[in-house]
Design brief:
homodimer, alpha+beta, Butyryl-Coa Dehydrogenase, subunit A, domain 1, Butyryl-CoA Dehydrogenase, subunit A, domain 2, Butyryl-CoA Dehydrogenase, subunit A, domain 3, three-stranded antiparallel β-sheet, 11 strands, FAD (chains A, B), lipid metabolism (chains A, B), fatty acid binding (chains A, B), fatty acid metabolism (chains A, B)
């Protein structure tokens, strides 16, 4: 979808005229600086303006196979351009995720890039887990794209619980090789991106056996396909897994092994080793691989923010352009954004973009600190970071998925059109609830940390993110963000306390601790969720408080949004507030009326705020959300691209319909 | 997906062995009788076993155009089979929706049937709004499929608010014709199924102008395409609207008019007429078309039930087959259905199937009563039925959409596979939240009735579904379903009271009543939602209480499910319960612990209950949900159908990937 210098829709002109702050200032604030905004836009332009990266026919009209072929074509162009950027010193590892998977990546290839894992998983794993010798051998080939790799961990039978993986790698000292096998149907690798027909190498995670003993999962480099012919090598059973809800261009694959032999040095040995005679040497610390998992979750919180930005931009602009129904019978049909129910659907989502953004920034900073500490051998702060990252990943991806869907539904029937790009955005965002740690599993990991923190009060008092568990007080209700934050902390603390008590009671009644944990898990999940909410509220407040370098006009808007996010959270948790704090029913009325006031205050700036997100039309790819607001023209323009519309009569009329109708005469 | 006489999965065998009741009894109970079960299965077999209705390649792998062509082929076969059934006296109007759109229809054509509206809207509108003469002329042609019609109401700019439609039909007495025009881009018809390239006739809803005056919207029969060539007729601008989130086989179309002339008798004149000289005669009652709208909403509640049945069957069976993670480190990996968090995700959804089913039955009965009354000229009970139908449509479709999505997410990554059929089911169920009255709009219609009922207490006392508004009492908490029902009624009454008060206050402060209504609309929506919940709970209770013809074993299960549904509803509304009833925080603990007990009681029967839903493998169309539980074999079998897997190396390797990799050497 191209941005023409179209006439701007009159309603949007009116909205922009009444905005009380400068949206550009917001853009620079969110990007970090004006310079960073420029760099982002330059990168976007470099990719999105390239005619080689445009398709003749929108992807949704192609067959599954054609989609793959078109995606591989584009993926090669993208990789070539990435190499150009590298050569000019304009891109490093930090940009790959954005270009290959993040907001920009999903704009270039909305169905996903089949080669993404090469840069995002294959090379980082070589770097993180290969010895210097292994890196020397492989990194060069991979970095310069002589080979293309993927990362094969998940199996048909095992996802989040990776200890249960079944693929075996048995060491044979007589030939100094590992023999890979898929002992069961469920042990087949299933899901890795690009595995189906794209990659010719993979890092395969398998249970290592040597000298008759299993030593748990380890990574192995395996060549999958012949360099010249791309034919699967002997013993490699490989293909793609079929259609999915979204990301149908990523070529997710399956992979089975029948006595596939790889040299000993194909096991990545930075942490653990197998000697030529088969002796196994264990990794000094199992926490070292922990950091990467945290990194990915940090990135996902940022991605959730991007998807939300996109969806609310589309829904808010559409709601300003769309006129429908009546408030007063004497008046013309109002913009649907003037319905308070519509404001209630959308404005808290606008506010949540900021909540996610600030928490993503916090996570990123703390991740970098903790990583430096790790390199200096200090592991102390990792569990706390891990606990926050787990519940933020779960809470933010779940909220973003619901939020994107709410945006889509708020656009009525037109939100159901592929050309709105809301269905596609949902396909990408909902997947995040499952991958890189299923959300319920992650919340239970946070809960384990919370219960431990509750039990070790003396240590907990020194941990920034959880010390409130042992320090809360039940403040009397006031109409303030501070009260809401303290109340949500109180809620979390009481939920943790209650869950701990119920575990105890179950253990005392004779249950095994594990069963007691399982039986209390609904409450535990709810406690971890509340912890995530309290963290988001606190981080939002601390960030807004510390902002000094913005205009008073922008600051006012940031504070209004912060208040809206806080009140809306409180109103989602009235049951917990009434149960665990001293607030009363009449206080909820105060919050409800405050919410309504805030919706009204934000109304004139709604379009300005989403303009400030500065998501370009190319990235939005939405007939409903473009900057010019020419919604109906664009819906038509998109419909005209359907191959069915290239001829007035489809051949099926003559083949099927006419013979049927005639047979009835 | 075919049901083979495969070996049944061992876990499912174990589950079925421990079931405490006979699932077949449940099937007959839900169908209405053993005879009705047999008839349903016979109809399913008649369609689903027909080799002409099977596709060589699963639809998801086809291009958009190929999907349409394959769907038209099948649609003609289905229509031929419908005619066969008619001739044998085995099908009437009551079966069309099921075959063309309901559970069976979506099993035959998961992407939707492009000819559905012919039987579901075109013919019923001719019957309902045509004069005897018009019926004589058109019904025969339509019934025998000499012509194929659709129903064109929604426009690019107007959906739920049909009074705002812009298409014009201006009467020209000199030729005794109407001249149809699309005065604006937004006046183009947009969405009607089959309009793009399938139908050759449409009933078009347009603003009628005669003698210089607009008389509002009326229906007109318009010929769209030439009978022999299928070419669009003069002045008809027509095509399809492009890809959507789901239903990509329905050929939704757009339609514009440039001075299209139709004879006077093409206006359907049963209710209003235009005389040859242009004199307009108004319909005696505007409430007469009201009934059809109610009918469709009744049907949608039943459809929501079917989709939920499908999704929970898939998720529960998969959760019994899937093993993952650990409860105790010493034990083998448990079935994931043994995690209480998984039970909490799924079992309340099982229970909601019954809640929806019983309310759909109630609606159907009352709809028939009220229709008989209408025919006798008695309109009194229509507004009350309309109010219930609106909020049940909104509450049940919204819950079903969330529920189907929760089922999908509970299946982890495999739920994201198209072959799970959960994404496809979501695509169908979420559309129901928008069409036939957008949910928020419908809740506000119910709210209007509730506010009126609150204001007219003397009348309200005689209305079954709302008399509780003026009769509630705040019962002291007991651990009982009856308390929950009375408490949710109390909640609704207090919400209605509060909303009425806030509207009053706003009016007194000088706001126009319409603005006061809009500003209170968030609370009004919430009151209507609570009314729907109270109705579902009450109907569930009354139905279960009145059941006498089932075994004690089944009755026990029905009561457990009813309790679970009630407790789960209460726990979703703790904020309202604490605010508006005398229950306390410790009572919530009692409810939470009751919920956990119920999950544990239902656990052994979970598979038995979904077996009792008796959704055949063909209807489920799910690799994860089949009766035999051979989940992994079926996932593989489905993947093998991908055209990409029909050759080991895709041509794109030689075209794009190899040249790129070689260029880097």
């Amino acid at each position: 979808m191209t941005t023409n210098n179209n006439k701007i829709n009159a309603d949007l002109l009116k909205e922009r005229a009444k905005c009380t702050f400068n949206p550009k200032e917001l853009t620079h604030f969110l990007d970090g600086s004006e310079q960073k905004t420029l760099e982002r836009k330059e990168r976007e332009k470099f990719f999105l303006d390239d005619p080689e990266l445009k398709s003749k026919v929108p992807m949704e009209y192609l067959s599954h196979k054609e989609k793959y072929e078109e995606n591989i074509r584009k993926a090669c162009v993208i990789f070539r351009k990435v190499q150009e950027l590298q050569n000019e010193g304009k891109a490093g590892m930090e940009n790959y995720r954005e270009i290959l998977g993040g907001q920009l990546g999903s704009a270039i290839l909305p169905d996903g890039n089949p080669l993404t894992l090469h840069y995002v998983m294959f090379i980082p794993t070589l770097l993180g887990q290969g010895t210097i010798e292994q890196q020397t051998e492989w990194i060069n080939k991979a970095w310069n794209c002589h080979i293309v790799g993927t990362y094969a961990q998940t199996e048909l039978g095992h996802g989040t619980f990776i200890r249960g993986l079944e693929t075996t790698a048995v060491y044979d000292p007589s030939t100094e090789e590992f023999i890979l096998n898929s002992p069961t149907l469920t042990s087949y690798k299933w899901w890795p991106g690009g595995l189906g027909h794209s990659a010719n190498h993979a890092i395969v995670v398998a249970q290592l056996y040597t000298q008759g003993k299993c030593h748990g999962i380890h990574p192995f480099i395996v060549e999958l396909r012949d360099k010249e012919t791309h034919m699967p090598l002997k013993g490699i059973i490989i293909g793609e897994i079929g259609c999915k809800l979204g990301m149908n261009g990523t070529n997710n694959g399956y992979l089975g092994f029948k006595n596939v032999r790889v040299p000993r040095m194909h096991m990545l040995m930075k942490n653990s080793q197998v000697h030529p005679d088969g002796t196994y040497v264990k990794s000094p610390s199992s926490k070292l691989t922990y950091g990467t998992m945290v990194f990915v979750r940090v990135v996902l919180v940022a991605d959730a923010t991007s998807y939300m930005k996109k969806a609310v931009t589309i829904a808010v602009r559409y709601s300003a352009v769309r006129h429908q129904s009546q408030i007063k019978t004497s008046d013309p049909e109002p913009q649907i954004i003037d319905f308070v129910t519509q404001q209630y659907k959308l404005f808290p989502l606008i506010a949540s973009v900021f909540a996610f953004h600030f928490s993503a920034n916090w996570l990123w900073e703390v991740y970098n600190e903790v990583t430096s500490e790790l390199e200096a051998g200090k592991l102390r702060n990792l569990p706390e970071l891990h606990a926050v990252a787990c519940c933020l990943k779960a809470v933010c991806t779940a909220d973003a998925a619901l939020g994107v869907e709410q945006c889509r539904l708020s656009c009525g029937g037109h939100g159901y059109m592929t050309s709105s790009n809301l269905p596609g955005t949902y396909g990408l965002v909902t997947a995040m609830c499952t991958y890189e740690g299923e959300n319920t599993v992650l919340l239970l990991q946070t809960a384990r940390f919370l219960i431990k923190s509750w039990q070790n009060k003396e240590e907990t008092i020194h941990l920034d993110t959880v010390k409130y568990l042992v320090q809360t007080e039940d403040l009397p209700f006031t109409k303030s963000v501070n009260w809401i934050i303290s109340a949500m902390k109180q809620v979390t603390a009481r939920k943790v306390e209650l869950a701990a008590k119920h575990i105890d009671e179950r253990v005392k009644s004779g249950k095994a601790p594990e069963d007691a944990w399982n039986e209390t898990s609904v409450e535990l999940v709810s406690a971890a969720d509340a912890h995530g909410r309290a963290f988001l509220l606190q981080t939002y407040a601390s960030t807004v408080e510390s902002i000094t370098n913005v205009s008073p006009q922008l600051k006012t808007v940031l504070i209004q949004l912060q208040e809206l996010y806080s009140v809306n959270t409180a109103l989602r948790y009235t049951g917990d507030l009434l149960r665990f704090t001293s607030c009363k029913g009449k206080d909820i009325e105060v919050l409800q009326s405050w919410l309504e006031q805030l919706l009204n205050l934000i109304r004139p700036n709604a379009v300005g705020i989403v303009d400030g997100f500065d998501v370009s039309d190319e990235v939005l790819s939405s007939a409903l959300g473009a900057y010019d607001g020419n919604v109906y023209e664009r819906l038509f323009e998109e419909a005209s691209k359907s191959p069915l519309n290239s001829e007035p009569v489809n051949k099926s009329f003559h083949q099927y319909l006419k013979p049927f109708l005639k047979s009835n005469l």
